Amino acid sequence: LQVEFEKNRELPAATADGSRLSVMINAGLAADTEHYGGGADGVGLFRTEIPFMIRDKFPSEEFQFQTYCNILKRFPDQPVTMRTLDVGGDKALPYFPIREENPFLGWRGLRMTLDHPEIFLVQLRAMLKAHRKCRNLRIMFPMVTQIAELAQAKKLLFKAHSEMQDELNDHFPLPQVGIMVEVPAMLYQLRAVADMVDFISVGSNDLTQYLLAVDRNNPRVANLYDELNPAVLNALNSVAQQCRQYKLEFSICGELASDPLGAILLVAMGYKVLSMNAANIGRVKWALAKVSMAQCQHMLQKALNLSSSDIIRRQLYVDMDSYG
Length: 324
Ligand code: PEP
Ligand code: MG
Hints:
Structural class: alpha/beta
Helix content: 40-55%
Subcellular location: Cytoplasm
Protein name: phosphoenolpyruvate--protein phosphotransferase
Organism: Neiella holothuriorum
Family: Belongs to the PEP-utilizing enzyme family.
Distance between the termini: 13 Å
Radius of gyration: 20 Å
Strand order of the largest sheet: 7-6-5-4-3-2-1-8
Bound molecules: phosphoenolpyruvate, magnesium ion
Number of strands: 8
Largest sheet: 8 strands, parallel
Order of helices and strands: HEHEHHEHHEHEHEHHEHEHHH
């Protein structure tokens, strides 16, 4: 099977009846994009906190600019979505300790960078400079809970952009701007979001954690953390329906997209861009090529009416067996 997966890696992603899809990679270091093996339609999530985590102080604007440029240059004709710094929660910077009783409900992602515009602006300036050179960057904000946070983040982005244009004495376009949909509160604010951003990407890892109130890293409750939980699937389906209604571009970059069964359900919901760990590209393309869009939709309809992730998973295996 591994050999078959590898064969699929380089083929365009599509269902058996030819519906074209985009398969992108999640990355966090230049090395991820050097050794990933090809076959991706771009970078759906670049976790910028990773280059911050492996250093001993905040990286300079110049260092960040070089880092971002290196990634953008590797995908010259494809979109690269970079997420602004997402520290806090389980991601700590050794030189910026945050001690809290409930880190996942605390000062993380955009919450921290909005409180530290001096850190945020350096990153935005470095990103904009890299975009000016390569033009294939998209910027995405993590952990957005309130519309006001998004408005504030955009204000800082515009400020950085106008300062950059003045400093460099050059006019260049803003990159596309989007947010992660990973806090359940966002499920009820997509109409307002649609007026403010170019795209959203669902972070199903955190969305699952917050929707089910299950710590994504706690082994004691690991059996309760399941992205195939019917509540999660219904939430993901609702995001897709709302985005279509509000004409908002949507994609997904959580682990569910790396799971062939998850990918099939997502495609049935209307997700056409799936971003995943590079190691799973071949596997996911292989599974998608085995089923038609109608079969995906049939599997989804059944899954949405079942009562637990175990039952859903079993049913999906049965269906795959009968189609494959
Ligand atoms: C997510 O939350 O689903 C996600 C993609 O981001 P991270 O895993 O980095 O929190
Ligand atoms: Mg997340």
